[in-house]
Amino acid sequence: LTDKLSRLVKNLSGQARITESNVTDMLREVRMALLEADVALPVVRDFIARVKDKALGQEVIGSLKPGQALVGIVNKELAATMGQGVSDINLAVQPPAVILMAGLQGAGKTTTTAKLAKHLIEKRKKKVLTVSGDVYRPAAIEQLKTVTAQAGAEWFPSSADQKPIDIARAAIDYARKHHFDVLLVDTAGRLAIDEALMAEIKALHAELKPVETLFVVDAMQGQDAANTARAFGDALPLTGIVLTKLDGDSRGGAALSVRQITGVPIKFAGTSEKIDGLEVFDAERHAGRVLGMGDIVALVEQVTAGVDIEAAQKLAAKVKSGGGFDLNDFLAQIQQMKQMGGLSSLMDKLPSQLTAKAGAMDMGKVEKDIGRKQGIIHSMTPQERKKPELIKATRKRRIAAGAGVQVQDVNRMLKEFEQMQDMMKKMSGGGMMKMMKRMGA
Ligand code: GDP
Ligand code: MG
């Protein structure tokens, strides 16, 4: 979070109990972080009030520091708000179990219909039929046909000249006759909340009596997700939410808003355009993402203890401005990691989507030969550090001799540097740089 928050956390370390005033200060920062993650304002207010209630007067136990305890409370409450545990699709009815998909146009209903079909076939061993009620866009019916085939499910034909309600009746008839376990009903998109279309999906709901009515919502929709969720929640007895496009770089604050507003669990998360890009929603993991990082406090403390914030900020700015990541930066990184008590321990504290990317690097090894790498870089000329591409065979031999290592060690270091450079490029848009900036800003 912000430098202010990290200072507050640090200042709290000596105290044994969380007091009203330090809670207020810290919660102001948490509030900012949530708003920045696009959580709707009324939802943020409610949330902060609940956390404040829980935090005040709470005894801080054992070795935990008050700052950590408070952030722990925030994290726990975030996860609880977004739903605890996991909840799969409910199929406890006389087959065919009907699942109705609702949501705005482009939210990902058709894609998710096919993903769910695949999930139900593979994980639940069900016989699945899909049908499209999107009679306004013939292309949408074709789209469902295509993705249904990818899922290995059966598709029930429908066409633009039919009424959605007739399609629904025919499909459910067919599903019954042919002993399908599940019928997934994709519906027409709405660009915005539209009375006629709302009436239509309500009628579909009344006819189909679905066991699951899933509200599909785009995580990138940010603040708007709250209004959409309210409209759909008022029109339909929703049973669950699918939050799509979590592979984008939004912080996913929409999860908090839609969960709170509809009161129904977020069952799945869409994580890619592909047919297998569906995950069971994990509220705890998502809480870390909404706040912007994993174990914030531990990270903040490690960072404030060992790292030159200014250097980190400079690096973030440089990479962001397209300035590139050279061996000088690599050296600075290596030295910072040493101060922070090891790369692997730092990596444990980053949000999981970042560690997944970093996972390509072997942390243990990076840590072990930090000293050797420093030596190698020290044996380079300033020009070589700025332009590593200059380092060809002759220079490598000279550098290796200077550092007292083998040429292959120089090669290995350069390779790791390239990996790091690559990672920096990938993260420069969001993730790590944002986090560093937030901590430093
Ligand atoms: P619908 O109008 O609600 O049926 O939305 P679609 O299923 O047609 O999806 C709209 C667009 O979003 C398509 O380009 C999909 O490929 C894309 N999409 C859907 N879900 C995801 C997701 O989880 N991640 C990503 N990256 N794209 C998605
Ligand atoms: Mg569609």
TrEMBL record:
<dbReference type="InterPro" id="IPR036891">
    <property type="entry name" value="Signal_recog_part_SRP54_M_sf"/>
</dbReference>
<dbReference type="InterPro" id="IPR013822">
    <property type="entry name" value="Signal_recog_particl_SRP54_hlx"/>
</dbReference>
<comment type="similarity">
    <text>Belongs to the GTP-binding SRP family. SRP54 subfamily.</text>
</comment>
<dbReference type="GO" id="GO:0006614">
    <property type="term" value="P:SRP-dependent cotranslational protein targeting to membrane"/>
</dbReference>
<keyword id="KW-0694">RNA-binding</keyword>
<keyword id="KW-0963">Cytoplasm</keyword>
<keyword id="KW-0378">Hydrolase</keyword>
<feature type="binding site">
    <location>
        <begin position="103"/>
        <end position="110"/>
    </location>
    <ligand>
        <name>GTP</name>
    </ligand>
</feature>
<protein>
    <recommendedName>
        <fullName>Signal recognition particle protein</fullName>
        <ecNumber>3.6.5.4</ecNumber>
    </recommendedName>
</protein>
<dbReference type="InterPro" id="IPR004780">
    <property type="entry name" value="SRP"/>
</dbReference>
<comment type="subunit">
    <text>Part of the signal recognition particle protein translocation system, which is composed of SRP and FtsY. SRP is a ribonucleoprotein composed of Ffh and a 4.5S RNA molecule.</text>
</comment>
<feature type="domain" description="SRP54-type proteins GTP-binding">
    <location>
        <begin position="265"/>
        <end position="278"/>
    </location>
</feature>
<comment type="function">
    <text>Involved in targeting and insertion of nascent membrane proteins into the cytoplasmic membrane. Binds to the hydrophobic signal sequence of the ribosome-nascent chain (RNC) as it emerges from the ribosomes. The SRP-RNC complex is then targeted to the cytoplasmic membrane where it interacts with the SRP receptor FtsY. Interaction with FtsY leads to the transfer of the RNC complex to the Sec translocase for insertion into the membrane, the hydrolysis of GTP by both Ffh and FtsY, and the dissociation of the SRP-FtsY complex into the individual components.</text>
</comment>
<keyword id="KW-0547">Nucleotide-binding</keyword>
<keyword id="KW-0342">GTP-binding</keyword>
<dbReference type="InterPro" id="IPR022941">
    <property type="entry name" value="SRP54"/>
</dbReference>
<dbReference type="Pfam" id="PF00448">
    <property type="entry name" value="SRP54"/>
</dbReference>
<dbReference type="InterPro" id="IPR042101">
    <property type="entry name" value="SRP54_N_sf"/>
</dbReference>
<keyword id="KW-0687">Ribonucleoprotein</keyword>
<dbReference type="Pfam" id="PF02978">
    <property type="entry name" value="SRP_SPB"/>
</dbReference>
<feature type="binding site">
    <location>
        <begin position="244"/>
        <end position="247"/>
    </location>
    <ligand>
        <name>GTP</name>
    </ligand>
</feature>
<feature type="binding site">
    <location>
        <begin position="186"/>
        <end position="190"/>
    </location>
    <ligand>
        <name>GTP</name>
    </ligand>
</feature>
<dbReference type="InterPro" id="IPR027417">
    <property type="entry name" value="P-loop_NTPase"/>
</dbReference>
<dbReference type="Pfam" id="PF02881">
    <property type="entry name" value="SRP54_N"/>
</dbReference>
<dbReference type="InterPro" id="IPR003593">
    <property type="entry name" value="AAA+_ATPase"/>
</dbReference>
<dbReference type="GO" id="GO:0005525">
    <property type="term" value="F:GTP binding"/>
</dbReference>
<dbReference type="InterPro" id="IPR004125">
    <property type="entry name" value="Signal_recog_particle_SRP54_M"/>
</dbReference>
<dbReference type="InterPro" id="IPR036225">
    <property type="entry name" value="SRP/SRP_N"/>
</dbReference>
<dbReference type="GO" id="GO:0003924">
    <property type="term" value="F:GTPase activity"/>
</dbReference>
<dbReference type="GO" id="GO:0048500">
    <property type="term" value="C:signal recognition particle"/>
</dbReference>
<dbReference type="InterPro" id="IPR000897">
    <property type="entry name" value="SRP54_GTPase_dom"/>
</dbReference>
<dbReference type="GO" id="GO:0008312">
    <property type="term" value="F:7S RNA binding"/>
</dbReference>
<keyword id="KW-0733">Signal recognition particle</keyword>
